[in-house]
Structures are given as structure tokens and as C-alpha cells.
Design a protein that fits this description.
Elements: E1 3-6, H1 19-27, E2 30-33, H2 36-45, E3 52-54, H3 60-72, E4 76-80, H4 93-101, E5 105-108, H5 115-120, E6 129-133, H6 141-148, E7 154-159, H7 164-175, E8 180-185, E9 193-198, H8 199-208, E10 215-219
Parallel strand pairs: 1-4, 1-5, 2-3, 2-4, 6-7
Antiparallel strand pairs: 7-10, 8-9, 8-10
Keywords: Cytoplasm, Methyltransferase, rRNA processing, S-adenosyl-L-methionine, Transferase
Function: Catalyzes the 2'-O-methylation of the ribose of cytidine 1402 (C1402) in 16S rRNA.
Family: Belongs to the methyltransferase superfamily. RsmI family.
Length: about 230
């Protein structure tokens, strides 16, 4: 029986690649990459010559069965995404679940993921939090916001740059203008920035200075009142 390795890759700064991740990627029989062109640059940088196959949200349903058979035959496979830890708002869950169901060993290496540094440097409570990932685009979006109005834990969202101002305006609408918000963008990269303030203040900031790059937003939960 083979083994599936889930291998995090840097979210921007290549120096965040671990020695163990490089070792695993060099030793496995196959690397599954979300985008082979993007991952090809990473592998070239670390002189990793292992063969790659494409594994992304549009083909993972079709490829899982064949990959399980390859693992059952004794192959070792590593799964990587374009950046960060696979299966966190990226492909990976379906294959991991299939391996677990078929008794195939799965080992996830520790490593980069965008929401952890964003949460830690937000200054918001991080003893308890909820990761929401990307909000629905249309259907179910309002329902999700209404459900989160009663959330007491710090909430973490992934937001694309062109939807940031719309999302911040929705935070004002559903959570209130004074709700604390922290927006981190381009984490670990040259132009890393974190903007903190009330939902209204942060919205005004990015209306005046539109955001670019990868974005993680942390929102303070509803404050419990006594009585």
C-alpha cells in the first residue's frame, strides 16, 4: 500500500518552504499540482524533478478513483496546491476522504496557510475562531450573513480584491459599522499590509485605495452582553 502526502507550499515567500516538504517532493513517485505551470516554477527553484500531474477542482472528481488504485498498488503521491495547504479552500478533500475510506495512509505536513498569520496579527481574539473561507457569490450569501450575525467567535474569510469593498459594505450592513475588522493582503510578500479598524473605517480606506493581491479578512465576533 502506498501513501498520500499533503504538502503545503509557500503563500508567497519561497523561504517559507520547509526542508521536509522539499525532501518529500523529491522522494515521492508523483506530485499532484493544482496548476502545473505555477508549481513548475516552485519545483525548478528547489531542483525537484519528480513527475507532475494536474489535479484541480475541475477534474478531481474524475481522477480520484484512478489515484486510489495507484496508491493501492504501492505508489507514493504528494498533493500540492498553488499556494498554502491543500484542501483549505483548494482541492484535496475528495482525494483525502477517498484514501481514508480505502485504508490508505494520509500524512499532512505542517506548513504555510494564509489564514493563520492573518488571524494572529489581526489583534482579534484567537482562542476561538471560525474559518468561513470564500462566501457564496449570490445564492446563499444573504443566508450566510444572517447566520453569522449571532457568531461570537472571530470569523475568517478569503476575499478576492474586486469583491473586497462589496464584502466590507456587507459587514457594515449585517454586523454593524463599529464591528472590528482586520484586512491582511499579500501575506509574506514584498507588499504585505494589514489594515485594522471598524468595518466602516476599513471600508473607507479601501474605497480610497483599492486593494490588490491575495486577501484574508478577520472580523470580530458578536460581543456577549451580561444579563
Amino acid at each position: 500500500m502506498g501513501k498520500l502526502f499533503i504538502v503545503p507550499t509557500p503563500i508567497g515567500n519561497l523561504e517559507d518552504m520547509t526542508f521536509r516538504a522539499i525532501k518529500v517532493l523529491k522522494e515521492v513517485d508523483l506530485i499532484l499540482a493544482e496548476d502545473t505551470r505555477t508549481s513548475g516554477k516552485l519545483l525548478k527553484h528547489f531542483e525537484i524533478a519528480t513527475h507532475m500531474h494536474s489535479h484541480h477542482m475541475h477534474n478531481e472528481h474524475k481522477t480520484v478513483e484512478n489515484l486510489v488504485k495507484r496508491l493501492q498498488s504501492g505508489e507514493t503521491i504528494a498533493l500540492i496546491s498553488d499556494a498554502g495547504t491543500p484542501a483549505i479552500s483548494d482541492p484535496g478533500f475528495l482525494l483525502t476522504r477517498a484514501c481514508v475510506e480505502n485504508g490508505i495512509d494520509v500524512e499532512c505536513l505542517p506548513g504555510a496557510t494564509a489564514f493563520v498569520p492573518a488571524l494572529v496579527n489581526s489583534g482579534l481574539p484567537n482562542d476561538k475562531f471560525v474559518f468561513e473561507g470564500f462566501l457564496p457569490d449570490k445564492k446563499g450569501r444573504q443566508t450566510r450573513f444572517l447566520a453569522l450575525q449571532e457568531e461570537y467567535r472571530t470569523m475568517i474569510f478569503y476575499v478576492s480584491p474586486h469583491k473586497l469593498n462589496k464584502t466590507l459594505a456587507e459587514f457594515v450592513q449585517y454586523f454593524g459599522a463599529d464591528r472590528p475588522v482586520s484586512v491582511s493582503r499579500e501575506l509574506s510578500k514584498l507588499h504585505e499590509e494589514t489594515v485594522r479598524g471598524t468595518a466602516e473605517e476599513v471600508l473607507k480606506h479601501f474605497e480610497a485605495k483599492p486593494a490588490k493581491g491575495e486577501i484574508v479578512v478577520c472580523v470580530g465576533g458578536l460581543i456577549k452582553t451580561k444579563g
